[in-house]
Amino acid sequence: MEQSVVELTQKIDSLTAQVAYLAEQAQIAERQRQERAELMRDLMPIANDAFRLSVEQLEEIQEYIDLGDLIRLGKRLLRNGRNIHKMLDQLEGMMDLAETMGPLANEGFAKAVDVMAMMERKGYFAFAQGGLKIADNIVTSFTEDDVQRLGDNVVLILNVVKDMTQPEIMTFIRNTLMVAQSEVEKPVDTSLMALLGQMRDPSVRRGLALTMSVLRVIGSQANGKNGN
User: Fold this and answer.
1) Residues 14-59: tens digit of each pLDDT
2) Which domain holds residue 46?
3) Which residue of 26, 74, 204, 210 sits 20 to 30 Å from the alpha carbon of 49, by its own alpha carbon?
């Protein structure tokens, strides 16, 4: 008799546990249902707005599209699914490359900024600005005919510049200018006796002879030009 009572008690406890479990599951299901209902209540206004906006946008472009175009577009997307997949893989690879090259690009940009700052300190930009101003003055000072003549004689001009920039010519001009500058500052005796005294100097006679030779060449060139 006692054993039967114990077994009955165990069955009642088991049944009670099962009922409690079912009640708990029912409560969980009810909470989930309520949460879904609340979510639907929150989403419905958003869905309605999205649907209304979609309808308005489609109404604006309905004259440019038709159902056949959309169907063909969908079929084409389906046929090119593999190509789209490859394209996305390439895009991901490019993004990975950009992430890898980002630090290098930042370092290169910082280096470029440092170089530009150094160039600004040394005056490169100021020199370039002055050069642009000089170029602007040159362009505005020459007519189209002047540029044409310059192009016709550019070889001759370059040859003259090349000859003038020879080391011996530049040294001669520099020494002459330095001596002339120092002599100009000195008092000059222009009397006839002083001039005759200078003629006794071999250097003066040689300079005068060279000057006369240059004048003879200039005169012959002038005569040739007048003759033509």
Assistant:
1) 888 888 888 888 888 888 888 888 888 888 888 888 888 877 777 7
2) 14-64
3) 74
